[in-house]
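hey m, so remember when u said the tokens were messed up on ur end? i reran from scratch. heres the input so u can diff it against urs
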Amino acid sequence: MSARTRETFSSDPALVRAEIEAMPAWLRRRGIGKASELSQVQRIIKQRQIHTICEEGRCPNRGECYSNKTATFLLMGPICTRSCAFCQVDKGHAPMPLDPEEPEKVAESVQLLGLRYVVLTSVARDDVPDAGAGWFVKTMEAIRRRNPQTQIEVLTADFWGGQGNREASPAALQRERIATVVRAKPACYNHNVETVKRLQGPVRRGAKYDRSVAVLQIVKELDGSIPTKSGLMLGHGETKAEVIAAMEDLRRVDCDRITLGQYMRPSLEHLPVQKYWTPEEFDELGAIAREMGFSHVRSGPLVRSSYHAGEEP
């Protein structure tokens, strides 16, 4: 959590208290895992000055994932070049230079923690020439040298930014960058649309719905054997019909897996929650997703992109 976010939380305790009290009981998470498991992961990543989205995003499932020998590493620093209105990752100022030792640090951490399944994600780095595609590959190679049995899922940005070859079109550059990651053969390629088409503008500044769907389509065109995955966070004001339409769009590009979870406002600076979807509504949407043909469905208030990622469909 950034210093700015902490200031917002502490500036008006009454507003924060009202926000917490409005949260339904099913979102008041039980214990997040054994303290020893949490502290071990936190100690290792802090010593190596690397980051996990589990910690940066304060994921409610991180203790459960750690105990199941899975974790999600946040590559290329903790500062994003975009400013999505729902996300807790720090943004709004210049990102740090890439740490040339980060791939090996991540690989060493995977080895020390005995992780069986790793998800690699990143902040958006529109300041990097290839938008970070090559960095994913470097990290995957480093992990495999030390941990050949560990499966690696990637959760990438849309690779639309970056400097790159200015003679090539943005779409051609995007495809080239996705191909770089696809050639490294991840166990699953994830890219989240995050919300329904109508709400992309206010929720995902700097991203576009069709561009995100295209990421998943390109992966399948390049290598149909790689499972693809996407996710939505509900609670921004979408309707059930819009969620179903988004799932239909994902199936049209042969997206295999989906996660549906509840958006929870990280601070008073972020978008307010428009609706808390009930567990029963998540169950219904999950059933609809399975009927559509998604092979791996996780639908529930506390589900996040990497929740039970390493489990077989």
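this time it looks ok to me. Confidence is low (pLDDT under 50) at residues 1-11. if urs says something different then somethings off w ur setup not the seq
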